[in-house]
Design brief:
- The chain is α/β, with parallel strands linked by helices.
- It folds into 2 domains: 219 residues, P-loop containing nucleotide triphosphate hydrolases (Rossmann fold, 3-Layer(aba) Sandwich), CATH 3.40.50; 67 residues.
- Helices cover 45% and strands 16% of the residues.
- The strands form 3 sheets. A 5-stranded mixed sheet has the order 4-5-3-6-7, with helices on both faces.
- A hairpin with a 2-residue loop joins strand 9 and strand 10.
- The longest helix is centred in the C-terminal third of the chain and has 42 residues.
- The structure holds guanosine-5'-diphosphate (GDP).
- Guanosine-5'-diphosphate binds next to helix 2.
- It comes from Amphibalanus amphitrite (Striped barnacle).
- This is Septin.
- It is found in: Cytoplasm.
- Belongs to the TRAFAC class TrmE-Era-EngA-EngB-Septin-like GTPase superfamily. Septin GTPase family.
Length: 377
């Protein structure tokens, strides 16, 4: 606004009445072509105790049999079990778009009496991927970095309780700043509609009371069409999703559906009256996959990177102090002065970088909860 008058924005070149286009309107197509050529990476971590239906749900989500080679678990081993990381990658292609999907499973999670080790294993895996990315980014081959960072963590909660258990609270509190947490209620077919509603409400209350930051949907763009807005509102209202998984295809009234057969009827995985499976799939794959990746890059990874650089800068300062002390003790000023200058230069660079990153994080937080900006240092 200038003098209270709204300024219009014009095309880049305007001559008389006729508009001349420079050609940058094709930029979205160029970006699209490049992204399609490169393909996409997405890493999903699944966490929850053995038997909660994690593998079944992943197979149902991606219409695959990702765990066909897995040995059946022996429930008597539960107590002594240690948490392992099992990583499986598959390439999926849809309409010429390639997705390299990695599923990180954590068999044994929460099965031992002391869960501390389970949390540590998951946390270490996430940190290790950030660390690897940080090193690749600072290395020579920056153009071909493979992104193995965890973009989303599906956390399975049993349907039998009244809300979150201590185990769930501790896990989420420990990891909420490092990964996009999406809690799901497992095996929702054991709950009536009323029980499901109450469990969801209790879980959301527990999440708020314990200041847990789960993945938050971005604000819907006011420019979006009504159908999108309706879908978005429905997704938000159904959180946390109560899901059912099945690898069995059944015939119901002439239709072939994935479902679970009970003496009284069939529970259909993709029936929205029966569970939120379709909502979870829509969010994870069709509507919010990119936002989950953006959040990983701009919030969680930036936090990690800031901490790393701050640690490196502190180490540089310590080594400067040591160098200065040694040079005073031994009286070797010439060489020591040169080294001190180098250290000062290094520290200054780190501090500049830190300052820029803090600034970037601050801007990011203040823009809005819509997290739709990309600012690169
Ligand atoms: P995981 O150990 O968490 O990977 O669990 P699995 O996917 O191996 O499932 C354990 C058992 O639970 C299997 O017998 C599944 O058929 C069953 N199961 C999986 N999903 C569901 C579900 O949504 N509802 C019910 N009732 N059972 C399920």
């Amino acid at each position: 606004f200038q003098n209270g008058i709204k300024q219009r924005s014009y095309p880049a070149v305007v001559r008389g009445d006729e508009k001349e286009y420079i050609g940058f309107a094709t930029l979205p197509e160029q970006v699209h072509r490049k992204s399609v050529k490169r393909g996409f990476d997405f890493t999903l971590m699944v966490v929850g105790e053995t038997g909660l239906g994690k593998s079944t749900l992943i197979n149902s989500l991606f219409l695959t049999d990702l765990y066909k080679d897995r040995q059946p678990t022996d429930p008597t081993e539960k107590i002594n079990k240690t948490t392992k990381i099992e990583k499986r990658t598959m390439e999926i292609e849809e309409k010429g778009v390639r997705l390299r999907l990695t599923v990180v499973d954590t068999p044994g999670f929460g099965d031992a009496l002391n869960c501390e080790e389970s949390y540590r294993v998951c946390e270490k895996y996430i940190d290790d991927q950030f660390n690897k990315y940080f090193q690749d980014e600072s290395g020579l081959n920056r153009r071909n970095i493979q992104d193995n960072r965890v973009h989303c963590c599906l956390y399975f909660i049993p349907p039998y309780g009244h809300g979150l258990r201590q185990l769930d609270i501790e896990f989420m509190r420990r990891l909420h700043k490092k990964v996009n947490l999406v809690p799901v209620i497992a095996k929702a077919d054991v709950l009536t509609q009323k029980e499901k509603k109450r469990l969801k409400e209790n879980m959301m209350k527990d999440i708020a009371a314990n200041q847990i930051e789960i993945y938050e949907f971005p604000e819907c763009d006011p420019e979006e069409d009504d159908e999108f807005k309706r879908q978005d509102a429905e997704l938000k209202a159904s959180f946390p999703f109560a899901v059912i998984g099945s690898n069995t295809v059944l015939e119901v009234a002439g239709r072939r559906v994935r479902g679970r057969q009970y003496p009284w009827g069939v529970v259909e995985v993709e029936n929205q009256q029966h569970c939120d499976f379709v909502k979870l799939r829509t969010m994870l794959i069709s509507t919010h996959m990119h936002d989950l990746k953006d959040m990983t890059q701009e919030v969680q990874y930036e936090n990690f990177r800031t901490q790393c650089i701050s640690q490196i800068s502190q180490m540089a300062m310590k080594s400067r102090t040591k160098l200065k002390r040694e040079s005073q003790t031994f009286g070797d000023t010439g060489q020591a002065d040169k080294l001190l200058q180098q250290k000062d230069e290094e520290i200054r660079r780190m501090q500049d970088m830190l300052h820029q990153m803090e600034e970037k994080l601050r801007t990011q937080q203040s823009i809005d909860q819509g997290h739709d900006s990309v600012i690169n240092v």
